[in-house]
C-alpha cells in the first residue's frame, strides 16, 4: 500500500462495514443491500404500490428461515415507497413475539392508529383503543371498512383523510394461527380483499413456518390472496459467497470521491479473500456446510472487522461459535466432589436400571466407593509399614450442598409433572429423596475425562 | 479514548473485553441490539460487563442499567424494571411515571409504553435523541418455570424492529447455559466466558485480600503471607470449591482471622510462632472438620420430644405404610401368631438372598397409602407395644389433620379428606422416624422388609 489514507477515512470505512454487519439493519431506518432478492422485493413493492395508487387491497405471505432477509426486504420496499409517496400511507407493525394473541394484537393496532392520527393531526383526544378487546376490534374495523369514520369527519370532513391506505406488516404470523377462529387474520384478510369503500389495506405476513398456509382456517384461507413469496437459503456455495460479499462489501456510491478509491480497494480485497485461500473463506465454507446461517456469520465477522488493520486490510480474530452440548461444558467446570456425585448417580442409574435418581441413592454409592478406596489404600499401606491413612470424610450435608449445585447448573433436571395443564411440583419426602433426571451418562463422563486417572477408576463398574 | 486500550480493570478477561468492544462500541457505530453472555457461574461475567459499561457511561457514551432478573421472578416485573430504570436514566421528571409504567401489563403493551416514553423525551428535548441505553439482564434464565424467559429474550431481541423510535436500546442476556433459552436460531452475538484456572483465582483473591487488609506488616511481607494463606486453604478444600470464587470467599473470610490475628497481636511474623504453616498445623483438627464449609443453621438434633407418644406412633405407622409393600402386611402386622411367628425368619431370609447392591426402598420416594391401611397398621403396632388404649377414631383423625397441616403426612388430592379413595404419603425421612421409634422404644427395623 503506497497511498496513505487519512485516519478518519479508514475509520469511516470501518464504520460503514460494521453498520452493514450489525443486527440492527432490520430496524428499517436505512435501506440494506440484499443479495439475490431483487425480484421478490420488486414483487412486494409493486403490490404495495398498487395498494397506494389504485386502492387495491392485497395480502401476501413471505416465508423463509430466520436470517433470510424477510424483514429487511419488506423494510426496503417500504422505504422505497416512503420515498415516492411520502406521507401517503400508514404502516402498522405487529409482531407475534410481542403481541402473542389476537386480543393484544388488535389493541396494538388501535394504539398504532392513534399514533398515526396524532402525528397527522396532533390530536390526542381520539382513541381507537377501548377497554375490551371486542370494542377495540369494532372501532378499528369500522374505520377499515369505511362504514363510519367519526374521527375523520369530526376533524375536517375531508375525504382525503379517509383514503389513506394502510399497510399491515405482521411478523411471526404463525402465532395467530393457533387460535381456533383466527379472528385477527380473518378480519384483516377480509378487509384487504374487499377494501373498495375507503381504506385500501395491504397485509404482509412474515413467518418461518413453511406450512403456514395449511394452518389457516378455511374461511381465512379463502380470503387470503394466495400470494406466497418463498425465500430459501442459498443452494450453491458460490451463491452463498455472493451473499457474504454483499454483506461485507461497501457500496462505492455512498462515499465521497476522495474515498472512492479506498472503498474500491477494500471491496476488491474482500473479493479476493472470499475467492482464494484465506481465513475468511475457510469460515464461510465451514458455515455453508454446517448451518448456512448468515446471521451467525455476521456476528463472527463483526470482531473481525472491528479489529481489522485498515491500512493492510488484515482482519482481527474470529470468535468460534459454540454448538457443543452445554452439559458437557458444565461438567468440565465442576469441582471434584460434584463430579464424583454425578458419576455415582450415573452408576446407580445403570446398576439398577432406573431412569431417575435421588440424593440418597447417589450418596450411598459415593460413600461405598470412597470407603472401599480408602480401605484398599490402607491395606496397601499396611503391607509397607504401620501407616494408616485417615482420608478426609465428607459429610452428608456437604454433599447435599454439592447436589443442590448440580441442580442449579441444570445437570440434574426435575421431571415436570402436569396436572390439568399446570406444571406442578408435587413433591413429598424431604430434600434427599426427590427424584431427578441426570442429563449426562457415565460413559459421557468417562469419555470426557479419559485422561484423568481417578475419574476412569470411578466410572468403571 | 479507545475503550479497548484503556484500562478496564478485569484480569484474565481481555479476550472477552475485546469481543465486547467489537459488539458494543459506540465509537464504531450502533451497538448490537442484543447480546448473549454465557459462561459457568463465577467466571466474571457480570463483573466484566459492569466494569466495561460503567466506563462507557462515565465517558458519557451510553446509559447503563443492570437488572437482577433472579429477584424479579416474573417477566412483567422485569419489563416494569426496565421502564422504571429507563425513566430514571433519562432523568425525566414525569408526573405520571408510575401510571405510565403500570400500563404495561406484559410484552404486548411494553412496546407502546416504551414508545410513549421516547415520545415524551423527544418533545421535552426538542427532538433530540438520548444516548444509547444498555440493559444488562442478569441471570435471565432463572425466572419462575412457567414465565418462559425464552419468549422474553426473543421479543426483546426484536425490540428495534418494532418502531424506528426504539433503535437506541441494547439488551444483554447473562446466562449460565444458553440451551435453556432456545434462542440459537436468532444467532445473537455471543460472548463465551470460561472458568478461571486455580492460579488465576489465587491472583484475583490475593488482590482482594491485600486491598482489604489493614495490617501492621510491610506490604510485601503481607502479600506473601496472604499468598501462603490462600495457597494452603484453597489446596485443602479444592475438591469442594472447584473453581467457584463465590464458594471460596465466605470460607476465606471465616478462616482469615484465625491466621491473621496471631500476626496482628505480635506485630510481625515470627517463624515457628505465627507464620502460616504453624497456624495451620496448630488448627489442623479445626480445618479437618467441615467447620468453615458448612453453616449450621439448625442444630442437628431436632427437638422432637415435645410430640406426644401417640402422635409419634401415627408417624411411625405412616412411615411403615409408605415404605412397606402391602403384600407383606399380613406377615408383618398380623395378630395371628402363626403368621407372625416367622416374621423374623422371613425377614432374615430375604436379606440373605438379596444382593448387596439392591436399593433399599427407604431411599426412594414414599408410596401412597389409604387411610384404612394406616389405621390398621397403627392399631397393630400400637397394641403390641403399649398397654394404654389408643385414642378413639375421632381423636385419631383430628390428630391426623394436625399432622397433615404440619405437612408431616401429605394428602395427595384436594377436597375429600376421609373418603376411601384419598391417598396419603409420609413426608418424614428415615433419620427422624428412627429417632422417634427409639424414643418410644419401638423396633422399627423389624417391621421393614429389606
UniProtKB/TrEMBL annotation, chain A:
Gene3D superfamilies: P-loop containing nucleotide triphosphate hydrolases. Pfam families: AAA_16, ORC4_C. It is found in: Nucleus. CDD domains: AAA. Keywords: DNA replication, DNA-binding, Nucleus. Residues 56-235 form the AAA+ ATPase domain. Belongs to the ORC4 family. PANTHER family: ORIGIN RECOGNITION COMPLEX SUBUNIT 4 (PTHR12087). This is Origin recognition complex subunit 4. It comes from Pichia angusta.
From TrEMBL, chain B:
It is found in: Nucleus. It comes from the Eukaryota. Residues 12-164 form the Orc1-like AAA ATPase domain. InterPro entries: AAA_16, ORC5, ORC5_C, ORC5_lid, P-loop_NTPase. Residues 342-353 have a biased composition (Basic residues). Residues 307-448 form the Origin recognition complex subunit 5 C-terminal domain. Residues 227-288 form the ORC5 lid domain. Pfam families: AAA_16, ORC5_C, ORC5_lid. This is Origin recognition complex subunit 5. PANTHER family: ORIGIN RECOGNITION COMPLEX SUBUNIT 5. Gene3D superfamilies: P-loop containing nucleotide triphosphate hydrolases. Residues 341-361 are annotated as: Disordered. Keywords: ATP-binding, DNA replication, Nucleotide-binding, Nucleus. Belongs to the ORC5 family. The keyword ATP-binding applies.
